[in-house]
Amino acid sequence: MHAGSLFNIANSGTLNRPGVDHTLVNFVLGPPYTFHRHSRWVPFAQALFGRARATRCTSVTLFDGGIVWPPPGLIVPPGTLEPVDATLRAERTGFAMLIGGGLDIKVSKHIALRPIGADYYFTRLPTFITGDDTDKNYFRYSAGVNFLFEQLNSPFDTRLEPVVHV
Question: Which has the closest alpha carbon to 2: 121, 108, 148?
Fold first, then answer.
């Protein structure tokens, strides 16, 4: 068994709030467990825990008198009002958890393909308006290439024979 970590960024806009940018960043740590470590096919399970940070951001243009720009469909002649551009940003930090597993296929000593990795992804973050905790449940699928680095004589490596000093 070894310690694993994951740093992930998800960024998206929202259809019901055009112009608002949503970003969710997490950093989680935990122990993955691999089965059949000596074979080519290596299924794994993992439980990762840590923090998530949500950010919402939008750009607005302000005019004298507190008018927010742009109202849809309104055209103002140039030089009529002096605009001030501003970016509104709100951030919250909370709990993150990923529980799942997948399959790695070793193609060489230092490279493995991951055709499937699936996780239940849970976050508990304060809302942007009231600050009350809100739970969100997600499903995450991943696939890719893993680069394998092995450390000989690691205290966690059970494949090596114990060395006895006389």
Answer: 148
As a CATH number, domain 4-147 is: 2.40.160
Compute the 3-state secondary structure of the chain and give helix, strand, coil in percent, each to the nearest 5.
0, 65, 35
Q: Do 114 and 140 touch, CB atoms closer than 8 A?
A: no
Alpha-carbon gap, residue 78 to 118, rounded angstroms: 53
Give the pTM: 0.65
- In tens, the pLDDT along 17-58 reads 567 788 888 889 888 888 876 788 999 999 999 999 988 888
Separation of alpha carbons 92 and 125, rounded Å: 7
- Nearest to 59, CA basis, from 22, 19, 91, 92: 19
How far apart, in whole angstroms, are the C-alpha atoms of residue 83 and residue 76?
11
- Domain segments of the chain: what residues? 4-147
